[in-house]
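To: structure subgroup
Subject: Chain for Friday's discussion

All,

I'm putting the inputs and outputs inline so they're searchable in the archive.
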Amino acid sequence: MADVKDIFSDLEVSDLRSDANAVEVYADSLTQALELAAKEFGIDITLLDYEILEKGTKGLWGIGRHPYRVLVTPLADRKEYGDLAALEQKLSRDHIPHVSAMKKGPVDGSYKVHVTKSGIWLTVTAPVGSGKKIAVEEVGNKLSSMKITPSDTGRIEKEIAGASGKPVKIGSWAPNPEYDGSMSVEITDDEMKAYCHFTPPRFSGKHLEYEEVVGALKAAGVKVGVREKEISEYLNTMDYTRPLIAAEGTKTINGKDASIEYKVRVDTKGVSFEEDESGKVDFHNLELLENVVVGQLLAVKVPAEQGVPGRTITNRILPAKSGKDIKILHGKGTILSEDGTELTAELNGQVVYKAGRLSIEAVYVVNGDVSLETGNIVFLGSVIVAGSVQDNFEVKAAGNIEVRGTVQKAFLEAEGDIIVFQGISGREDSRIESTGGSVYAKFIQNATVFAENDVIVPEGVLHSNVDAGSRICSTGKRARIVGGVIRAGSEVNARYLGTDVSTRTEIRVGIHPKILQQLSDLTAMKAKIDEEQIQLKLNIRTLETQKRNAGKLPAEKEKVLKDLTERNAKLNERTEEIKAQLEELKSYIGMMEHKGKVCAERTAYPGVEIYIKDKAFLLKDPYNHIKFSLQGDQIRISEYEPPEGIGGRVLMIRRKR
């Protein structure tokens, strides 16, 4: 019976079964198969890759022996790495095991022996600082334990001495499958991860290479998600004590639901209290209201997001859920855009948020007093206060203000009407101002009141300063105007003017109170300047006298004289400006038509001073059922004339409210 080795030796190369750039070789051993293939390709045996298709057996005395069947492929033809430099690039050659670039202090040198198809490679890393160098004996013992006999010991010694940190070939690889490293692939049940479990090589066995790991993953069904960098780093460290997550799928990302982004405050529970520099908290300015103006953006819808499908390592698509849509719920006073993504205010007013729905109220209702519980009220619509406005609080409204109780030492300001059902008791520190409407109150006592139109007070005005652009009327059964300064553009009409004890009461009509106030302010300003100039001129005269007597002033006094002179010149300029403004106002008043009247239904008492435009009438005796009006250049007395439409208007407003 012919020996198998003899049979192989008789084979011609053309008889070897080949497939493209690979050849299938039958041989007595793996080494013999690679030698035959190397001869066939005409290249070094180290540049061959192989796959054992069928492992051979020796048999017994030649009986039952079977040859190795090996598929051999040139590395160059499969675009493998033909030298270690390229291989190290694939395996993250910048990584040096056990040495951290960031580590400080001395570090011992290190080395590693790497067996690949291209040969046996030694990499020696130099120590850092006073670290210990690698000894030749260490490497020799390692090679001996790996059953490796180096072909060039001189080169090994040279590399250990130089410690270049680069791989140096110290021998050729001799195939021995029994010693080679191996691996298994474990795919999780959800197919999202692939773990590689490695068995390290023994002795001179070959380490697994990148392409082999990737090939094993593909053979196990892994199609996507291969972690190339992690595989390279793992193989480079040659630490097989832990499994490698070699592939990982892409997790599903479910889309976010649509949401509403509110541009106004809808939660007043989290109101913060601000402290001043002294650590005190101002409880008056709680800012509980959220005011908006026409066209202001109230809310924006953030669209739902589409989900991103996941993908398993076996390339199975994992569907994702898209986010749920949501609608902007809106109520009266708001406008939703056509695409449903933006909500804007249709009118000025207060934001109301109930049950997830936004609306704008043109009227804000305070169910009780304006106090520490509510803080000051500032609203871009109308305000209704069911109770009273307590001391030191403010209510400001772009519309009307209606107070069902009383107004105490407080400040009210409205662009529309101000209505106080139970009256104003200001204790000299309250101010009520309607910049575009009228003021209606049951009574006014010790307060400052201004209305662009009328001030209507059924039960009287006591010791207050009241201005009205048109009329001030107090015509109830107990109505009287006593004390203070009363100014109206056209008419003051009351049941009683003054008292029988001659309380001084100043009443001015015929000129708008704003003009009178401007006239008064300019006059006061001129008087203040005149007073300052008197002192200035005295000081200037004194310094000039000293200068004449001494011939020269010290530098400091000279500068003072210069400053005083410049100040006096500026005051002269300001005085001329004020005079011009006063002349203009007086000229305007002179051109105004002769209107204005003061009426007392019952009695006008002594102590009342009546001014109609620039004419005065001081009462020294009581007058009954009387009217004072300007005729020509004189104030004339005639029969009482009731105000027009006052009673009807008051009733109409009360019914409306």
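Points worth raising on Friday:
The two ends are 127 Å apart (CA to CA).
The chain has a mean pLDDT of 81.

D.
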